[in-house]
Amino acid sequence: MRFSALKILTEGLTGNRGWGAHWRDPEPADGYDIIIIGGGGHGLSTAYYLAKEHGLKKIAVLEKGYIGSGNIGRNTTIVRANYFLPGNSEFYSHSLKLWEGLETDLNYNVMHSQRGQIGLFHSDGQRDAAIRRANSIRNQGDDAELLGVDQLRKMVPYLDYDQGRFPIYGGLLQRRAGTARHDAVAWGYARGADQRGVDLIQNCEVTGIEIKAGVVQGVQTSRGAIRAKKVGIVVAGRSSQVAAMAGMRLPIESHVLQAFVTEGLKPCIDHVISFGMGHFYISQSDKGGLVFGGDLDMYASYAARGNLPMVEHVAEAGMTLMPMIGKARMLRSWGGIMDMTPDGSPIIDKTHIEGLYLNAGWCYGGFKAVPASGNCFAHLMATGAAHSAAQGFRLDRFRTGRGLMDEEGTGAQHNLH
Ligand SMILES: Cc1cc2nc3c(=O)[nH]c(=O)nc-3n(C[C@H](O)[C@H](O)[C@H](O)COP(=O)(O)OP(=O)(O)OC[C@H]3O[C@@H](n4cnc5c(N)ncnc54)[C@H](O)[C@@H]3O)c2cc1C
After folding, report:
1. Residue 378 pLDDT greater than 80, yes or no
2. Is 92 a domain residue?
3. Which residue of 257, 301, 320, 324 sits 20 to 30 Å from the alpha carbon of 281, by its own alpha carbon?
4. pTM of this prediction?
5. 34, β-bridge pairs
6. Atom from ligand 1 closest to the CA of residue 281
7. Is residue 199 part of a domain?
8. How far apart are CA 218 and CA 230, in angstroms?
């Protein structure tokens, strides 16, 4: 089933009775060429590009819950390519270009909205850093504009510009940045992968990884053993637990990140806005809710729910930046489990076990990476060589110390990234 304007019109006129399921619900086969563990954004996009770009046929995605139940359905939907460091910047640039063609590629409305993202600065030092970042982004071929405070006041009049503690000096705008509907991204990739013959197997938890003489043989699951020539671990916040099934100890800590949404309001926030003096960022969803978030809860945990001190902290940051937000009522908050690396940058690499591959360490920025991550991981799994946009995401940088990409400059403490 392909979507088209004509199909929507005829379905609308005939009671919407002709829509089928978006993907099949197959039983697991005895074996596959490639098994992807984890049906989140990265696992689904990997399977999609393996089938689409490398013509591989016998692929399964094993998901312990349902498609969209992990971080892919929990994030605040921000998409941008404003990274500073070589290694990161070419990768996120690649991802943004894939985003720009994604709806056509998938024939699926992922509600990609390039509404612009503005990172605020509040001191001369932060302005210098923003200028350096803007130059780096432009050298990479992406867009970045420095806004003075007068320009900003016209574009985003609702901010508290003159507050004594954190006055706003200006902002760094990326017009091509914005948002996309998170679960539609999962559904679009799932449907595209299924159409190309990938088996999406939900309610199938991987409980063990079979290895013989240093070579991967397959996986144990809650639905029986499944053989595979290659296995990709793509489980975000559960990376350490699943890698431990192969005897590996990853340089990853899992931490909770919360997000919040208010009641639906009339359109009032046109862009994505990031506060520069605290961890707070906000946008408005298409339904009208103000969607915002802040820092990690400051301890390692596998609980996908948050705690009140961080709720208070985020609410305070919001009130500091835009006091008008105090009038909105908060509807919901939720949490997701973040796979934090010591330098805040991800891993897309082989492991020391032949046929076992790792895609992890997305911290709290992996939604924007979904297209490029799947694209580059599929390239690695299919060809054995790292994609040119993901050369730096090596696992051994945490052992050797060479090639670390500490974008935030905060050192080796996981929860500070
Ligand atoms: C509150 C919040 C806000 C965020 N905001 C942004 C943002 O604005 N922009 C941005 O770029 N990023 C953001 N992120 C980060 C982004 O959501 C994640 O980095 C990204 O979604 C992680 O990759 P994924 O989609 O593959 O993860 P997931 O969707 O978590 O996929 C992993 C899957 O693996 C499955 N799994 C785990 N163990 C097993 C097993 N043993 N067997 C089988 N399956 C298993 C899980 O059930 C899960 O479905 C945010 C995250 C959160 C929580």
Report:
1. yes
2. no
3. 301
4. 0.97
5. 59, 230
6. 8
7. yes
8. 8
* CA of 242, closest atom in ligand 1: 41
Model confidence at 291: pLDDT above 80: yes
Residue that is last in its domain, among 296, 317, 340? 340
d(CA 357, CA 407): 24
Q: Are 200 and 35 in contact (CB under 8 A)?
A: no
Per the structure, the complete domain to which residue 21 belongs is given by 5-77+182-251+343-416
From 69, 75, 78, 368, mutation site for ligand 1 pocket: most ligand atoms within 8 A of C-beta: 75
Burial tier of 104 (Cβ tally within 10 Å: 0-12, 13-18, 19+): exposed
Which residue, by CA, sits nearest to atom 41 of ligand 1?
Answer: 206
Cβ–Cβ < 8 Å for 337, 364: no
Q: Which of the residue ranges 255-259, 305-309, 393-397 would you say has the lowest mean pLDDT?
A: 305-309
For the record, the structure tokens of 12 come out as: 């609308």
Cα 73 to ligand 1 centroid, rounded to whole Å: 8
Q: What is the number of domains present in the chain?
A: 2
Cβ neighbours of 269 (radius 10 Å): 20
Residue nearest to atom 2 of ligand 1 (CA): 75
- Helix H, strand E, coil C: the string for 242-301 is HHHCCCCCCCCEEEEEEEEEEEECCCCCCCEEECCCCCCEEEECCCCEEEEEEEEEEEEC
Which residue in this structure is represented by tokens 């330098």? 343
What is the pLDDT, as a whole number, of residue 298? 85
CB 313 within 8 A of CB 293: no
